[in-house]
Amino acid sequence: MNFTDLNLIEPIAKAIQEQGYTNPTPIQERSIPEILDGRDFLGCAQTGTGKTAAFSIPILQNLSKNKTPNRHIKALILTPTRELAIQIEQNINDYGKYLPLKQLVIFGGVKQGNQEAALKKGVDILVATPGRLLDFIAQGIISLKNIEIFVLDEADRMLDMGFVHDVKRVIKLLPQKRQTLFFSATMPAEIQKLANSILNNPVKVEVTPVSSTAETIQQSVYFVEKENKLNLLTHILKNDISDSVLVFARTKHGADKIARKLQSDGVSTEAIHGNKSQNARQNALTNFKSGRTRVLVATDIAARGIDIDELKFVINFELSDVSETYVHRIGRTGRAGAEGNSISFVDGLDLLNLKNTEKLIGMKIPVIKNHPFHTDDLVAQKRDSNNKPFNAGSERPKPSGNNSSRPQKNKKKPTSAVGYKKPNNKSFTRKK
Ligand code: AMP
């Protein structure tokens, strides 16, 4: 299918063409006609599937039918993180650049003055995080009584981040008569219940279930002792990869430590996490996107939904205890069909998580041995909440399953020393 088959109005078709999109992604193919038709929509889709355009494009088209524009908020998009909110607003700005509609993003962590002034000038489409939205509503600065379209984005993440009560408070303030679009990467029971309670006979579309990793992503694992991880990172960045890299760290402290080490090794690096101010996070992101900073180290929440064009490498400095997080993390690369690479550093504390992750994605991730820090002697250990071995000091537990012998058993040979396919994309740079 081509975008020209979707009956989009000229200003939107032109803007999409300028973005370089020719074919709608599977979720867009399904969502655009149905949302244009006024149907409620339930999309089970993670970031990287093109879900932002899947709801933004038909919202823009539906709102632009209104010939007598008034500056009431007519579409509300609620999303869990500031970064994601900013990203969505930028996308709407891109797709709607030839339309007279106005959009705005509001989020907490910054002074409200500028956002308030912009709201007072009038807004058609508002992208918001729950806390700041409720603040403005409480102050009488925002009213939701004219909302025609409500989007709940990343509903499962709202639950994870403890925002579900805020979301429910917002929903209570919406007009009964409205169109509702609901997106979630996973559908735990509580999210399913919420969806059932706010959607009216929705069209349901599920794309790329969370357990599937994009085929375009070349995944690899490096077995390394915990104390060698920082040196391995520097080694890879200096010898194997010359591209930009997004590094995931489990903790804020860990992210800062990695950033400091890389900076001292002469690699331009910044860290983003919840302890950084919104401005610092935004600046770091801008520097990374523009290539001024080569490495961005992020915690999961700070990185959620971040959309970085042409990102080819993701490195998991540690694996998360939540296996789905692996899929979200590596989904930052290999987006919309582009080629991507993910590298996971695995020490004894990560072994169990590796096993669970491989179970979730249904494949063994090839192990790369061709580096100075490789070890075949990892011993599975549990991690406590401080990222330290559980019961440190006592006798180490026995390796679970065949983990310690796994490198030998892995028959699938990587295609190169760092485990990614030979690039066919010119912008890809890899040191020999
Ligand atoms: P999302 O899932 O909304 O985070 O989008 C993932 C990435 O895909 C973003 O970089 C979008 O700009 C890009 N994208 C969205 N729709 C298309 C499309 N139809 N063709 C190519 N790229 C797209």
Describe the fold and architecture:
- It contains 16 helices and 14 strands.
- Strand 10, helix 12 (278-290) and strand 11 form a beta-alpha-beta unit.
- The protein has helices at residues 10-19, 26-36, 51-63, 82-95, 113-121, 130-138, 155-160, 164-172, 189-198, 229-239, 252-264, 278-290, 300-303, 323-330, 351-361, 406-409, and strands at residues 41-44, 75-78, 103-106, 125-128, 149-152, 179-184, 203-206, 217-223, 245-248, 269-272, 295-298, 313-316, 340-346, 367-368.
- The radius of gyration is 23 Å and the shape is globular.
- The strands form two sheets. Strands 3-4-2-5-6-1-7 form a seven-stranded parallel β-sheet, with helices on both faces. The chain has a seven-stranded parallel β-sheet with strand order 10-11-9-12-13-8-14, with helices on both faces.
- By secondary structure, it is α/β, with parallel strands linked by helices.
- It folds into two domains: 3-207, Rossmann fold (3-Layer(aba) Sandwich); 211-425, Rossmann fold (3-Layer(aba) Sandwich), CATH 3.40.50.300.
- The site of adenosine monophosphate has 16 residues, from helix 3.
